[in-house]
Amino acid sequence: MSNNVKVCAICIGTGGTDYQTKINMAIEYLHIAGKNGVNIACLPEAFASNNPESIRGQTTENIAKLAKQYDMYIICPIYEKADDGIYNTAVLIDRKGKIIDYYRKIFVFWGENVNLSNEGVKTFNTDFGRIAILTCFDLNFAELWHEADAQNAEIVFWPSAYGGGMPLNAYAMLYHYYIVPVGWGNIIDITGENIKDVISPKENLFITDLDIDRTFIHENFTGDKVKKMLDEYTGEILIEKHYTMEAWWLLKSINDNISVRKLCREYEIETLREYQHRSRSQINEIRKVGGIV
């Protein structure tokens, strides 16, 4: 068992004048990703063309072959031709080359000339954890990133036509999920910092391992339980960092056979995310009846 997932951002740009050139480029990069043992690779927003096509069309058919060949998930953004219009859509393909779901861009950029999605934020369960996908201009609307947190996303992939910058780092820190931007390739840690341990076997291709078992804990109501867990798993679990102003611990397992999250359930320790979600729900319920906390 491993707590790590190997992710890949393929930053070859959106669109282009020659569809076949971009498809060939994507295939070349995906071969490299697959040979490097990537678990999930993401291509940029509408990377091959702005010409609409079916979700089960030429582009996804070509990309799905690589997913199956290398046993990896691939996020394949296209301009989707649907029965009710055109959408800017990111298609999720599984390790067997099967299309399992899609996300349609909610906040379409001015002049993009595609339909607005009414389906909302989605999260997708994979064999390594739960992911979300948001696209380009979606960056500017905090409610989408909040909803990804509300649905317990562990990694958010962001196919884009540009770099994004500071807001991405802020969302990662605020919501404690990894963000994989596929614009300029700056993969972001749950601490909000850009990950430095990234390899680039080819220009504009970025690969790194994400430890999705690393867990934030709030000090409130957990101190004795955390101390007991750490005492009983000395040398196997450690406090990676103590955030004193925030009253957070960041816990990490250094044994691939031990999961911090599983132990938190065993020791009845709420994660920071669980604590925040429960507190929001319970306090809002009290608010409805005019009670006090």
Largest sheet: 7 strands, mixed
What portion of residues is helical? 25-40%
Calculate the mean pLDDT score and round it. Answer: 96
Gap from first CA to last CA:
42 Å
State Rg.
20 Å
CATH superfamily of the largest domain: Carbon-nitrogen hydrolase
**Order of strands across the main sheet:** 5-4-3-2-1-11-10
Low-pLDDT residue spans: none
CATH class of the largest domain: Alpha Beta
Strand content: 25-35%
Notes on the protein architecture:
By secondary structure, the chain is α/β, with parallel strands linked by helices. It contains seven helices and 14 strands. The strands form three sheets. It has a seven-stranded mixed beta sheet. A four-stranded mixed beta sheet has the order 6-7-8-9, with helices on one face. Helix 1 packs parallel to helix 2. The longest helix has 17 residues, at 19-35. The radius of gyration is 20 Å and the shape is globular.
Question: What's the helix and strand layout?
Answer:
Blueprint: E1 4-10, H1 19-35, E2 40-42, H2 58-70, E3 73-82, E4 85-93, E5 99-104, E6 123-125, E7 130-133, H3 142-150, E8 155-159, H4 166-175, E9 178-182, E10 199-202, E11 205-211, E12 215-218, H5 223-232, E13 237-243, E14 248-253, H6 260-266, H7 272-288
Parallel strand pairs: 1-2, 2-3, 7-8, 8-9
Antiparallel strand pairs: 1-11, 3-4, 4-5, 6-7, 10-11, 12-14, 13-14
Helix pairs in contact: 1-2
Name some characteristics of this structure.
293 residues, alpha/beta, Nitrilase/N-carbamoyl-D-aminoacid amidohydrolase, 2 domains, seven-stranded mixed beta sheet, four-stranded mixed beta sheet, 7 helices, 28% helix, globular
